[in-house]
Amino acid sequence: MRVGKSYEYNGICDICGFKKKNYELRKRWDGYWVCDEDWESRHILDFYRTKNDVHNLPFTRPDSNTLLTWTPVFTGFVQNVGTGTITITGTYSKDTINTLIKFQVEIQITGNATTTSSPATVSLPIPCVIAGTVRTMDQQAVLFLNTTVPGAGSIALLPTWSLVNRTINISGSYGY
């Protein structure tokens, strides 16, 4: 007399490890043979495909903010070098799209050198057509004063100061 069905054998569930009959196990989507308690269908997002989401710009242009240098010329600005040094550098960039000039002058004062400004002016790299602003700060970012670049000129107004062993940053922008 036969006790079992034909082709019936024992198997082990790959997830829970319980012994089951072969007809009680099913092959899951990830290749495991599992019982009904451990069966799970494949997640729907496994079949999700996105569209090609490439954003091509209609046009491009190179970055025009190349730093250029110029030698700033001051009026009303007294330099007393003594045993220190005073170094003045000027850089600017030209924004051709917005017709804007951004400039920066750095005055490095070392040792016992001093500079005094009793309202001074500084030359601009390119003559101004549209008025702008100038900000003068020291190395600790202490603002001396916001002043202006008068329209239709080639100078910027500077505040009054008298400093020893500091760095002064003068920055601004105006239209050309």
Beta strand count: 14
Global shape? elongated
Order of helices and strands: EEEEEEEEEEEEEE
What is the mean pLDDT? Answer: 85
Report on the structure:
The protein has no helices and 14 strands. The protein has two domains: about 40 residues, no CATH class; about 110 residues, Immunoglobulin-like (Sandwich), CATH 2.60.40. It has a six-stranded antiparallel β-sheet with strand order 5-7-8-14-10-11, with no helix packed on it. Strands 6, 9, 12 and 13 form a four-stranded antiparallel β-sheet that branches. Strand 3 and strand 4 form a beta hairpin. The N and C termini lie far apart (about 105 Å). It is about 0% helix and about 50% strand. With about 180 residues, it is mainly β.
Mind sketching the topology for me?
Layout: E1 10-12, E2 19-21, E3 26-27, E4 33-34, E5 68-70, E6 74-80, E7 85-95, E8 100-110, E9 114-128, E10 130-138, E11 143-149, E12 153-157, E13 161-164, E14 167-175
Antiparallel strand pairs: 1-2, 3-4, 5-7, 6-9, 7-8, 8-14, 9-12, 9-13, 10-11, 10-14
Please give a handful of descriptors for the protein shown.
four-stranded antiparallel sheet; 176 residues; elongated; Immunoglobulin-like; mainly beta
